[in-house]
Design a protein that fits this description.
alpha/beta; Dehydroquinate synthase-like, alpha domain; 2 domains; six-stranded parallel beta sheet; globular
Length: about 375
């Protein structure tokens, strides 16, 4: 018998304008608070309106400009350890992950890399400062996950997590107005990441009825939102709210059911290239859907048929191909075009480390190579 446990936020505040609850939350429980955010938020109208009332409630502020490295996390921890007792994160997945890492490592004595999965030698204890997570993108679902993803593309070349159930943010604020005005490319790249979380967790060999129903609800919301994310009208507002909820559901389901071969490859590629993680997942997703329709695995085909019945009830055809065609036909931005290139030795490095994660099928290195070559042109170094 397969069971699961849901480890989620203690409190979720959602809806348009929900960000303006943040000062009230901080005033409910006054304590020294560190804000982590990204530059685009600081340049926007939401910060201009919020800053006069929020800044007096903050002890300090840090700007996260990209996926944080272990050295950057250590620098922030050394600056704020013992000086703050709460962390607020407003930004995309990189900001939220950095905030969760800082909050946790403020309560741990060793450098970040010592606790990282894949390369670390010490387990995290679960001790952490409380985190309030406010996503400004709809993709990673980091506001609902147990892990903080850290990336080092230099010395140790690793993309890995600090992970513990206590690292799920205590409070998540889901305000779709924070997505308004986001470029179509960013909206699409983030949304296809959310889709991949939901899709891979739906197909996972660790999934059960509870997680699959959550994944399916998230996929329905994705279908509702995907064609309209960039619209500047009521339909666009509804789409962004739906995608934000789909992203949150993806964060919940991946935490229980896990992910598959797409993330098994994307995580290793992310250790080498500063490419948008959502775009990476999307580029791998399209050839993976073709591979799925060629699979003879009975459980995998049963799940695909169930998904097709739910999402394409009046259409016939191969389930994964229906998904492939629908995603491309309704995309607000062609994330699969103008792919950068990989060097052959980079591909070999990725394939030596990638895996099928929680897939029903263990994909061979040849199959994984085919996914990579379908997604990016590969050339030999000169």
């Amino acid at each position: 018998m397969t069971t699961s446990q849901l480890i989620g936020n203690r409190r979720v505040i959602s809806g348009r304008g929900a960000l303006h609850q943040l000062p009230l939350l901080l005033n409910e429980d006054p304590q020294s608070t560190l804000l982590l955010c990204n530059p685009s938020f600081l340049r926007g109208s939401q910060w201009a309106a919020l800053e006069p009332v929020l800044s007096p409630l903050l002890t300090g502020q840090e700007c996260v400009r990209h996926e944080a490295s272990p050295a950057e996390i250590d620098a922030w921890v050394n600056r704020w350890r013992g000086k703050v007792s709460r962390v607020v994160a407003i930004g995309g997945g990189s900001v939220l992950d950095a905030a969760k890492a800082v909050a946790a490592l403020c309560m741990h004595p060793l450098p970040c890399v010592r606790y990282l999965e894949k390369v670390g030698d010490t387990k995290v204890t679960g001790a952490t400062l409380p985190v309030i997570a406010v996503p400004t993108t709809a993709g990673t679902g980091s506001e609902a996950t147990q892990n903080a993803v850290i990336t080092d593309q230099g010395e140790i070349q690793v993309k890995a997590s600090l992970r513990h159930e206590n690292f799920v943010p205590a409070i998540a604020i889901l305000d779709p107005d924070l997505l308004k005005g986001t470029p179509a490319a960013v909206l699409a790249n983030c949304a296809i990441d959310a889709f991949t979380h939901l899709f891979e967790s739906f197909l996972s060999n660790k999934a059960n009825f509870f997680t699959r129903e959550s994944s399916l609800q998230g996929l329905r919301l994705f279908f509702q939102a995907w064609p309209h994310l960039h619209r500047d009208d009521g339909q666009g507002d509804a789409a962004r709210e739906a995608m934000l909820m789909a992203s949150w559901l993806g964060g919940q389901t991946l935490g229980v059911a896990g992910l598959g071969v797409i993330h098994g490859i994307a995580g290793e590629l992310g250790a080498l290239k500063p490419w948008h993680h959502g775009e990476v997942c999307g580029r791998l997703l399209l050839p993976f859907l073709t591979l799925l329709d060629e699979s003879a695995h009975s459980q995998q085909q049963l799940l695909l048929a169930l998904l097709a019945d739910a999402l394409f009830p009046a259409q016939s055809g191969q389930p994964a191909q229906l998904l492939h065609d629908w995603i491309k036909r309704h995309a607000i931005y062609p994330f699969w075009e103008n792919a950068p290139s990989l060097r052959s030795e980079e591909m070999d490095w990725i394939l030596a480390r990638s895996n099928s994660k929680n897939s029903w099928v263990t994909y061979s290195q040849a199959q994984q190579r085919a996914l990579l070559t379908a997604a990016w042109p590969v050339h030999d170094s000169q």
